[in-house]
């Protein structure tokens, strides 16, 4: 079983290979079709899956969530049903979406490495493989010669009404350096309800109305990861030959996402939080040392005037040490402190904090002096 660091390293290697295009591997892109039920997503997705292999000659496959997530996943669990079975941590549909993402990642890994597809041990994996097999994707994933010579576009057809749902797929694209884009179909609620009534298996109208209140459109100005997005009015039929759509798909394939890119501000904020935590732990450790040193001095009948001088000196050295620890030069190589409970201390010992970690930090020279004085 792979560890998390091993998984990350493997993904980085695959992403690098995908960016270089080594081994003749073709470009791969993920395109999300988003919008309310009956907005026209599936109609457009099916039209694109027929059109793209003809011109411009890309390989294309449609992954429809309605077909890959079983209907029972959306049913509420009956009270008292299955008392012997543990209650799942997530509702059925959320768990199914998570498993579907795992299946997609397993397929992508096989596609990029040429290894046999290996996914999670769950019924959804066989359902996912069946969908891929029907569309001729398994030869490409199994590394057959010439199977992956053309760019491959995977169309993911779902409501994706929350940005977080779309971001999960974007993270996969970024992890493996794939193209990523979004087609958001904007359609008036009444038009969607009208179309839905004509379906053989309509979605409950209450579900569509609730989703219309919650749906989050792509925000190109706020979210850099949504830059390759189109918002299309789907009140009328959208042509699969739409020039905007073709340009978006081509741009996404030609500009794969870069792996492990993080927002600079987020990184700085995280670093500041960690640094503040480190300083806080160091401060607590120093306070314990000072307290123990003062108790020892009192036990040795040190004069009050000398006790005062000792306290002032130790607090001054503590302040110098913490100030050095706060400096930017210390932030690059500090690490969180581990304060662990040990055996009860004996008279004269220095508390329960493992102070050795403090002594190897940048700017710790004042601390060495501080510690020496405290133990004297």
UniProtKB/TrEMBL annotation:
Pfam families: KTI12. This is Phosphoseryl-tRNA kinase. The keyword Ribonucleoprotein does not apply. PANTHER family: L-SERYL-TRNA(SEC) KINASE. InterPro entries: KTI12/PSTK, L-seryl-tRNA_Sec_kinase_euk, P-loop_NTPase, Ser-tRNA(Sec)_kinase. One of its GO terms (molecular function) is kinase activity. Keywords: ATP-binding, Nucleotide-binding.
């Amino acid at each position: 079983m792979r560890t998390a660091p091993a998984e990350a390293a493997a993904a980085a290697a695959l992403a690098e290979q995908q960016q270089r295009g080594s081994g003749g591997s073709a470009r791969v892109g993920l395109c999300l079709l988003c919008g309310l039920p009956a907005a026209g997503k599936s109609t457009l997705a099916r039209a694109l899956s027929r059109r793209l292999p003809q011109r411009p000659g890309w390989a294309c496959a449609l992954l429809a969530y309605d077909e890959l997530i079983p209907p029972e996943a959306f049913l509420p669990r009956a009270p008292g049903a299955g008392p012997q079975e543990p209650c799942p941590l997530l509702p059925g549909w959320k768990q199914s979406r998570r498993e579907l993402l795992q299946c997609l990642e397993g397929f992508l890994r096989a596609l990029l490495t040429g290894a046999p597809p290996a996914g999670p041990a769950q019924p959804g994996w066989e359902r996912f493989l069946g969908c891929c097999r029907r569309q001729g994707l398994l030869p490409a994933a199994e590394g057959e010669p010439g199977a992956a010579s053309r760019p491959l576009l995977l169309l993911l057809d779902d409501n994706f009404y929350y940005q977080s749902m779309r971001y999960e797929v974007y993270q996969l694209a970024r992890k493996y350096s794939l193209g990523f884009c979004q087609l958001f179909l904007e359609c008036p609620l009444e038009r969607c309800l009208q179309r839905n009534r004509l379906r053989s298996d309509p979605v409950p109208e209450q579900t569509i109305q609730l989703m219309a209140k919650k749906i989050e459109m792509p925000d190109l100005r706020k979210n850099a990861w949504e830059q390759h997005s189109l918002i299309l009015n789907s009140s009328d039929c959208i042509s699969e030959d739409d020039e905007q759509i073709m340009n978006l798909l081509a741009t996404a394939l030609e500009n794969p996402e870069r792996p492990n890119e993080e927002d600079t501000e987020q990184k700085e904020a995280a670093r500041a939080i960690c640094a503040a935590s480190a300083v806080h732990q160091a401060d607590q450790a120093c306070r314990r040392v000072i307290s123990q040193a003062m108790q020892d001095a009192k036990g040795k009948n040190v004069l009050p005037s000398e006790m005062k001088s000792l306290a002032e000196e130790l607090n001054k050295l503590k302040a110098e040490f913490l100030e050095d620890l706060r400096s930017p030069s210390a932030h690059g190589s500090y690490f969180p402190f581990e304060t662990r409970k040990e055996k009860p201390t004996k008279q004269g010992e220095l508390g329960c904090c493992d102070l050795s970690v403090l002594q190897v930090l940048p700017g710790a020279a004042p601390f060495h002096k501080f510690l020496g004085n405290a133990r004297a």
